[in-house]
Write a structure and sequence with these properties.
Hypothetical protein af1432; 4-stranded mixed β-sheet
């Protein structure tokens, strides 16, 4: 029995203990430049513009996720080799993220490129440069080869793997990812919405036999903890992740960089930005976006070539590159859209939010279009925008959380929980009007807002 532990102090999980063997499994990956870059990428995009403490990174979340995976693996008594696979997969699951995490994905046309699309390129880098050789020198009893690293890659990319229990730890409605980020985001935002009893959930986890084979589930004693966990997720989605002002400000970010990408090649005044790695990436992205808009049926091949050609740029990008661009753009004195949006971002000029009745959204949008056409000389389209935020807190129809009762019968949790049965697969939608703060004092804007508010009463 190995009694040596490597300890990482964490504000969420406290003292995270990894055995000496586990430490050797994960430390070569932690020390790699591909994972270290996540130190400079915010977990919650522009969340800290609303919640000042939310400056935690994808790096700290990845370590936390790996730790939770180790705790799950110990609880359900996985073999050492399986525990190694899920710990590494959870450690690397977010490795493809770019600056400001999910927010950055919005600058691509129709969000055609996500962080998962970049992940295979990062994973391929581990297959090169003698990484496995160096890794196996430290782990002679648990070496990594192409065969077992492919299992890790498949779990991260949500491809089928033979052992569904391992895949469930990495990606499911009970995965280590959610169990960490809900508590982590809750802590750093300084709220109470995301709290749940992680220790009791871990205690109640179990391997259950379903019609589709063995899966990660819970025993009957854990139903209450899972109810609490799923309600915590619902509250975090509604009050943190989809907070209207946060989404509206992130929309400013997306429009700023989308517009900048479209103008870099045309405007000589942005020559300094054009020379930066972010500028080079944005110009390539704009070419991709234009192709995607005009050739939707040919997008797959173009997407793959874009990813391959621009991975060397992407791997170097982080939040610092974004802030540098915003600061330089905001210093310009013109009325171009990218500059005006950069000024809002630089000075945290938050938009005003008017909550809408999404059931009456068609009428609101019609009023908005009429108003924009009548006043296009005083406002830009981006200064008045309607946004919607649909979400599901729990999807029980296609892939439910399984519960094994005292008699050994396995059923979906919705059959034991009245609350989760009512919540399962329900699409909840909120809508709001985003108004640029700069135009808010115009009397015509005030009258329009009053009219919209009356429509949503």
């Amino acid at each position: 029995m190995n009694n040596f532990f490597h300890v990482i102090k964490d504000p969420v999980h406290g003292t995270m203990q990894f055995t000496d063997t586990e430490d050797k499994w994960i430390k070569p990956f932690i020390d790699s430049p591909f994972l270290q870059r996540l130190r400079f990428i915010r977990q919650m995009g522009m969340g800290d513009f609303i919640f000042p403490g939310a400056v935690h990174t994808r790096f700290s979340h990845s370590i936390g996720c790996c730790y939770v995976a180790s705790q799950i693996a110990h609880k359900i008594r996985l073999s050492d080799s399986d525990r190694q696979l899920v710990m590494i997969a959870c450690l690397l699951h977010d490795i493809g993220h770019g600056p400001f995490s999910h927010t950055f994905e919005g600058i691509f046309y129709d969000k055609l490129i996500h962080h998962e699309d970049w992940t295979p390129y990062f994973l391929d880098d581990y297959r090169q440069s003698g990484f496995f050789e160096r890794y196996n020198q430290q782990n002679p009893n648990h070496p990594l080869y192409e065969e077992n690293f492919e299992i890790i890659a498949n779990m991260i990319m949500h491809y089928p793997v033979e052992n569904r229990v391992l895949a469930d730890i990495v990606s499911s409605q009970l995965d280590a990812d959610r169990l960490d980020y809900l508590l982590r985001d809750n802590h750093f935002c300084g709220v109470q919405y995301g709290q749940f009893d992680l220790r009791w959930m871990l205690h109640c986890l179990s391997i259950v036999e379903t019609e589709m084979g063995k899966r990660l589930g819970i025993n009957y004693k854990g139903i209450g903890a899972v109810e609490h966990y799923l309600m915590a997720r619902r509250q975090m989605i509604r009050n943190i992740y989809q907070l209207q002002k946060k989404l509206a400000f992130e929309n400013f970010f997306i429009q700023c960089f989308s517009e900048l990408a479209a103008t870099l090649q045309k405007e000589n005044q942005y020559s300094n930005i054009r020379k930066t790695r972010m500028g080079q990436f944005l110009m390539a992205m704009n070419e991709f976006n234009l192709f995607a808009m005009s050739h939707p049926t040919q997008i797959h091949e173009k997407k793959q070539s874009f990813l391959k050609d621009n991975y060397p740029l992407y791997i170097e990008l982080c939040d610092h590159d974004v802030f540098a661009i915003i600061k330089e753009l905001a210093a310009f004195d013109n009325n171009q859209k990218a500059v005006q949006l950069a000024k809002r971002l630089q000075t945290r000029c938050m938009p005003k939010i008017v909550r809408l009745d999404h059931m009456n959204l068609t009428n609101v949008e019609a009023e908005l279009e009429t108003f924009k056409k009548a006043h296009q000389h005083i406002i830009e389209p981006w200064q008045l925008m309607v946004m919607q935020t649909p979400h599901r807190s729990y999807s029980g129809e296609n892939d439910p959380i399984w519960v094994v009762n005292e008699q050994g019968r396995v059923k979906p949790i919705s059959q034991y929980s009245f609350m989760l049965n009512a919540l399962s697969d329900k699409l909840e939608t909120s809508a709001f009007l985003c108004i640029d703060r700069v135009i808010i004092d115009d009397e015509r804007i005030k009258q329009f807002i009053d009219k919209i508010k009356s429509m949503s009463d």
